[in-house]
């Protein structure tokens, strides 16, 4: 494959690709192969399409693409067909034959695979009719349904690497000015302005500078960065390339969470392709820039998402944060000036280069321009990957995009910002989602995790969950963080077990203060947010555990009892499945649980078809 | 694990001590865990103390110092999976396999492990068996899967 050596060559290469595409006039069948759809069998769907298209002799008329996450993971496997983007959901391999025959070949729309809009009852044919997509602004993710992530040609066809060309045209100073003007804020959680960081890094006297991409995505329950890397890896490479050009760096690293094997595979391929085409290497597109990127796999430590710990980890050491008297932009990796940005931050850069800062500023809010990707998960109807303009309200995201709470239950809280964030109640749903607003409310936008909780989620249990996570992830350097989080976990556990008394909550509050003030890095400093926010907004729930020894949500096992109601038909199913054999009863007669022996595993409740088991 | 294989891995990283983490990861990928002999061998070749390698191996959660089961059942304990009942999947596995989470069955056939999010959060709760993802799991579906696997292994 010949290298592309100049900007002009890139453009003519793209023209040729587009012409070829037009001449071939193939119909695209884009099968989502993001981690979500893969988990429910997308690769088999792709195989089935390949086989069927070949069998029907359509190989020169149809192009099958295995794409990154198309967003609406809950409806996977998602298949988008043709330029009009006909949108099929829950496609199984068995359905493929009919789809190829009728839709791909015959142009017929098969109702069975369409999405029903639950509010209007209307069948939606294309992505643009579906409320989940209609209420989003998918600047970064929108192309996912057109791109084969492992095809650099696909990326070039949609204007890929032209942001870099533009940057080179502008010159390094102007790139930094444009980034500063756009006031792009880092998507990794801190929200620090990228342009300012780039400028500082560039201005430090040094013979060597490093560019690093933070793809550690530590928030457990979030997959934005994962999906960007899986779906559009070249956009991240291009963003890093622009940064390298502006800052003056010849060496880059992407630090990826090792739990993302697919992202690592696709990224590895993308880097290889970029090298072959000449987007990495020497004198890239004749700009004089030499730059290459290496992948580092993380070791499964949350704290390694923190900048100094991450750099220590790349250097082959234990990932402990250090005090940042001297910032990493001045002295980072191997003591050299280092620019660290998040995956999504880099993915925004090519768009800003191509469209300009003014365009970027027209999106989002004044303090937080642009869009933000969220992983909308938990007890919401439409789970998936969402991209919305900054300033969209929580309510719009959860109810308009997310379609409200699943299983007809009631909204209780939304957790944003992962282990550093907080839980916000119903009364805060009209808050604008941007860096500053959520921070003021004791939560955090963080990297974009959004976990919706219904009335069957216990807030004490949620706080306990995050404390347990953080207690394991604390690197142990600071006593307040190491011991404080452990003790906090113990205290909250006591509450959840009904062992708390009137001294417990004040003690928790005092300890939160200590951990917050006495810890070195944000893990400890913000790690108390889940407890603090649940205490602030759901104090009565803590009190119910302490005073009434009850878990109102029916979650904390020490405080609940399972019971069979009169709805029981005596079908024997629960009796058979109970692992402790503690359900007695005869056929067609109401069964009874021996509460002494019951281990509260919940299996009977799962098994019951008549909703006859309740928790009190 | 044969030292020749470790050599190939060290070679891949030009024998650089700064690639220690990557070397350890590749060794684990090959052997399924980090064998003592391999650690000692790496220590010698790269001239880094064994203690340093173990301090890394215990700091980074992804390392295993004991041999793991032939089949590895991993439950995602990320927040999205947690709120949808991941804990109960672990409990079910523990009952079905008669070993606690983090452990390996006596016959060496199964290990139960936990992970914090693998990026398929929309399909939680999630069980990963030997690298294959299973979304929207229930205690029942987990039990069925284990039964099938036990049968395949020629057990009960
Ligand atoms: C404990 C801890 C974990 C972090 N984890 C991540 C992470 O997984 N991904 C990320 O991009 N930033 C993470 N950060 C923030 C980074 O330190 C850093 O601010 C960010 O990567 C900078 O990029 P940005 O300015 O583009 O956001 C973490 C910070 C802390 C303190
Ligand atoms: S706050 Fe916690 S994680 Fe951060 S450096 Fe201190 S002990 Fe380590
Ligand atoms: S993984 Fe297929 S839509 Fe998200
Ligand atoms: S929380 Fe389980 S896959 Fe993300």
Note the run of SSEs of chain B as H and E.
HHHHEHHEEEH
Kindly report the average pLDDT value of chain B.
92
* Global outline of chain A: globular
- Approximate strand percentage of chain A: 5-15%
What's the CATH superfamily of the largest domain in chain B, by name?
Glutaredoxin
Order of strands across the main sheet of chain B:
2-1-3-4
Q: Which residues of chain A sit in consecutive blocks of at least 5 with pLDDT less than 50?
A: none
**CATH architecture grouping of the largest domain in chain A:** 3-Layer(aba) Sandwich
Summarize it.
The complex is a heterodimer of chains A (616) and B (156). Chain A is of the alpha/beta class and 616 residues long.
Which key phrases capture this entry?
heterodimer, A: 616 residues, alpha/beta, Glutaredoxin, Rossmann fold, Ubiquitin-like (UB roll), 5 domains, five-stranded mixed β-sheet, four-stranded mixed β-sheet, 25 helices, 14% strand, B: 156 residues, alpha+beta, 2 domains, 7 helices, 4 strands, 12% strand, binds flavin mononucleotide, binds iron/sulfur cluster, binds FE2/S2 (inorganic) cluster
Describe the protein's architecture and organization.
The complex is a heterodimer of chains A (616) and B (156). With 616 residues, chain A is α/β, with parallel strands linked by helices. Chain A is built from 25 helices and 19 strands. Chain A is globular. The mean pLDDT of chain A is 94. Chain B has 156 residues and is of the alpha+beta class. Chain B has 2 domains: 3-59, no CATH class; 71-152, Glutaredoxin, CATH 3.40.30.10. Helix content of chain B is 47%, strand content 12%. Chain B has 7 helices and 4 strands, in the order H-H-H-H-E-H-H-E-E-E-H. In chain B, helix 6 (86-97) packs parallel to helix 7 (139-152). The relative contact order of chain B is 0.12. At the A-B interface, helix 2, strand 11, strand 15, helix 18 and helix 25 of A face helix 2, helix 4, helix 5 and helix 6 of B. The complex binds flavin mononucleotide, iron/sulfur cluster and FE2/S2 (inorganic) cluster (FES) (2 copies).
């Amino acid at each position: 494959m010949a290298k592309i050596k100049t900007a002009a060559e890139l453009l003519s290469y793209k023209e040729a690709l587009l012409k070829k595409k037009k001449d071939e006039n193939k119909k695209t069948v884009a099968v989502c192969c993001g981690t979500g759809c893969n988990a429910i069998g997308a690769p088999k769907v792709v195989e089935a399409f390949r086989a069927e298209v070949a069998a029907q002799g359509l190989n020169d008329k149809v192009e099958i693409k295995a794409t990154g996450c198309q967003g609406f993971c809950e409806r996977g496997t998602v298949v988008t067909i043709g330029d009009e983007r006909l949108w099929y959901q829950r496609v199984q391999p068995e359905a493929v034959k009919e789809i190829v025959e009728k839709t791909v070949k015959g142009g017929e729309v098969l109702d069975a695979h369409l999405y029903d809009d639950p509010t209007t009852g209307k069948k939606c044919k294309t992505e643009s009719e579906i409320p989940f997509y209609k209420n989003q602004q998918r600047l970064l993710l929108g192309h996912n349904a057109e791109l084969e992530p492992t095809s650099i040609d696909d990326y070039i066809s949609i204007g890929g690497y032209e942001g870099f060309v533009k940057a080179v045209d502008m010159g390094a100073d102007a790139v930094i000015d444009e980034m500063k003007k756009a006031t792009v804020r880092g998507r990794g959680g801190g929200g620090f302005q990228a342009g300012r960081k780039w400028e500082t890094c560039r201005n430090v006297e040094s013979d060597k500078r490093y560019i690093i991409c933070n793809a550690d995505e530590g928030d457990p329950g979030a997959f934005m960065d994962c999906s960007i890397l899986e779906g559009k890896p070249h956009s991240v490479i291009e963003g890093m390339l622009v940064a390298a050009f502006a800052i003056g760096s010849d060496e880059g690293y992407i630090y990826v969470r090792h739990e993302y094997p697919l992202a690592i595979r696709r990224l590895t391929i993308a880097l290889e392709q970029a090298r072959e085409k000449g987007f990495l290497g020497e004198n890239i597109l004749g700009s004089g820039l030499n730059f290459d990127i290496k992948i580092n796999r993380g070791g499964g430590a949350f704290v390694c998402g923190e900048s100094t710990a991450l750099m220590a980890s790349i250097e082959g050491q234990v990932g402990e944060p250090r005090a940042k008297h001297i910032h990493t932009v001045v002295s980072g990796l191997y003591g050299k000036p280092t620019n660290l940005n998040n995956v999504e931050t880099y993915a925004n850069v090519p768009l800003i280069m191509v469209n300009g800062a003014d365009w970027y500023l027209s999106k989002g809010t004044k303090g937080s321009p642009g869009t933000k990707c969220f992983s909308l998960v938990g007890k919401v109807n439409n789970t998936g990957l969402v991209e919305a303009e900054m300033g969209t309200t929580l309510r719009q995201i959860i109810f308009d995009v997310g379609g409200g709470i699943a299983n007809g239950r009631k909204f209780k809280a939304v957790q944003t910002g992962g282990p550093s964030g907080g839980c916000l109640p119903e009364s805060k749903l009209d808050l604008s989602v941007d860096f500053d607003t959520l921070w003021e409310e004791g939560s955090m936008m963080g990297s974009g995790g959004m976990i919706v909780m219904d009335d069957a989620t216990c807030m004490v249990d949620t706080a306990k969950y995050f404390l347990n996570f953080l207690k394991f992830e604390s690197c142990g350097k600071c006593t307040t963080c190491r011991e404080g989080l452990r003790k906090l976990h113990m205290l909250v556990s006591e509450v959840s077990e009904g062992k708390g008394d009137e001294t417990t909550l004040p003690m928790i509050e005092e300890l939160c203060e200590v951990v917050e003030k006495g810890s070195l890095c944000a893990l400890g400093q913000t790690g108390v947010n889940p407890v603090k926010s649940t205490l602030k907004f759901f104090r009565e729930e803590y009190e119910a555990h302490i005073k009434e020894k009850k878990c109102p949500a029916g979650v904390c096992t020490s405080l609940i009892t399972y019971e069979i109601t009169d709805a029981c038909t005596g079908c024997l199913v629960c009796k058979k499945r109970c692992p402790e054999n503690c359900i007695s009863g005869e056929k067609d007669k109401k069964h009874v649980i021996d509460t002494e022996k019951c281990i509260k595993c919940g299996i009977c409740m799962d098994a019951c078809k008549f909703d006859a088991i309740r928790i009190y | 694990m044969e030292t020749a294989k470790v050599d190939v891995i060290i070679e891949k990283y030009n024998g650089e001590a700064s690639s220690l983490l990557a070397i350890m990861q590749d060794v684990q990928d090959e052997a399924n865990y980090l064998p003592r002999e391999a650690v000692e061998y790496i220590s010698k070749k790269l001239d880094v103390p064994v203690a340093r390698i173990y301090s890394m191996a215990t700091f980074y959660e992804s390392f295993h110092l004991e041999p793991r089961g032939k089949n590895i059942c991993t439950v995602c304990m990320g927040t999205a999976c947690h709120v949808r009942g991941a804990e109960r999947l672990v409990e079910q596995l523990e009952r079905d396999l008669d070993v606690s989470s983090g452990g390996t069955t006596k016959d060496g056939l199964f290990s139960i492990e936990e992970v914090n999010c693998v990026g398929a959060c929309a399909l939680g709760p999630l069980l990963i068996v030997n690298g294959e993802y299973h979304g929207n799991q229930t205690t029942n579906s987990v039990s069925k899967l284990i039964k099938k696997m036990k049968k395949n292994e020629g057990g009960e």
